[in-house]
Amino acid sequence: MNALSTKTEESLRQELRGFPASTVDAVLSLREEFTPDRLRGAMLGVLEFYLPKSGTRSLTRISDETRLGEDLGVDSLTLAEAAFKLDELLTVPIETHETAQVKTVGALHTLLCEKLGLLPAAGSGGEI
Amino acid sequence: MESVLITGLGFITSIGHDRTTVAHALKELRSGVVPWDPLPGTTLPVKVAGTLKGFDLSAADPAGWVFPDGCAIDRQTLRSLPPHGACAVLAVHQALASAGLIPDDCRDGRTGLACASGGSPQVMHQRLTAMERTGWQRGHPLGVIASVAGTLNFNLAAHLGIRGACCGFVSACASSAHALGYAADAIRLGRQDRMIVVGAEDLNVAMLLPFHAMGAVSLEADPARASCPFDACRSGFTGTGGAAVLILESGRTASRLGSPRLARLAGWGEAADGLSVAAPHPQGDGLARAMKLALTDAGINADEVGWVNAHATSTPAGDRAEALALQRVFGHHRPAVSSTKALTGHGLSLAGAMEAAFSVLALQEGFIPGQANLVTVLAEGVGLDIPRETRDLRPQIVASNASGFGGANVCLILTHD
Predict the structure, then answer these.
(1) Domain boundaries, given as residue ranges, for chain B
(2) Do A93 and B130 touch (CB under 8 A)?
(3) Within an 8 Å CB–CB cutoff, is residue A87 touching chain B?
(4) CA-to-CA separations, B297 to B110, B241, B317, B411, in angstroms, rounded
């Protein structure tokens, strides 16, 4: 059992209507294997969708240290929006005061891993 | 006092998403009302509506909305919009382009925004339901912005970078007519050089079906019989949604910029019935006074009016009251009277702006839309000149009426420049 096992592929596709195919694939891959790396891929896909167009830095490569605000231009409302989507997708409660503490990509990944009972892989990079 | 010109129009309506298509539909009495089945598998009491062709705005997340070719909105703008807000964004850009403006022109501090919608009951319902599921612990962070009355002002002011006036109007089906009136006053008083006026409304179960609970909606399944203003057999209104936008500019601004001078908003009047929360005054007292005040404001005699673009929604009480008000104001002079809601359906807060924009098309292109779906004129309307066919006749002056809950009544007077 994992966080997505109670949802059908069709229902997940419905929840992700309008999202890029790569994000949908990343989320669906979690149904097969619920690992920190795959969670990270899905998280980055969702986050990418909510990023403002005019980010302050190239979005082609990010790391755990990438700062959501200064580097990616994510304001608190945008982060809350992305977190709410992850909350609904993963059926994991993410409280507003928790996202308020999140400042980096790695911190968001860690928060999700902790809530889902996964141990995050340390220092992983990733692409958006 | 500054004159007020209409220099741009935008339409996302059941009868078309551009000026040319809309004008043809009005002239040819081509209806946008079609069978409506937004919840397949259920049996809704309401069978027809004035739908937006090519749009699917039913998904809870705007990311899932479908737009027709040529209508695209970026995600950053979409994220806090209700369905009708998306229509409004598209119509605003259309109107700005038709006025020869670009969005950056709206940032000059002399451009204001006046919007009207009832908010989005659908988005509010979706967001509150989702929040309730969490025990009221968590909710969509943009749920308020996308749903409450005022959502249009919030979204469009930010989207356009409005630095002048920014206000919303809520008087139900008179809302966007009120917005036009107050926007015109802002220009006449020299407070603004330009006003963008927006009327918009959702069309979905959450917006329309509550009116069924009031007994206000027609249950006819035949689109040709559902919305039949001024007909003896009318049984209620037919819903529609979308957006209409008018760009108002002062005469001096229009001259300086060489803006298209589509029509003049020569005056307006408002008067309330002071009687009921929902029903109109039985003799149309408030509406009659609103029309007289509008004519006085415009400096025009009743016998100069060529067409009354009536509010008539096809409800038994409303059409009767308006017919009596028209008899009282115009007496022996008989301007042509028709209601375009037979073609579009009734757009609630959208109606006033949409119909004012239709009136501009009639002035510009030289026609008076016939009264579609009229078989037998209601008793109180006998003696009014209600043409069944469109007349190839250029009206010189149009009075466009709007009435809303609480007995609010507005009349706008539009003329050639």
Answers:
(1) 4-415
(2) no
(3) yes
(4) 24, 31, 28, 11
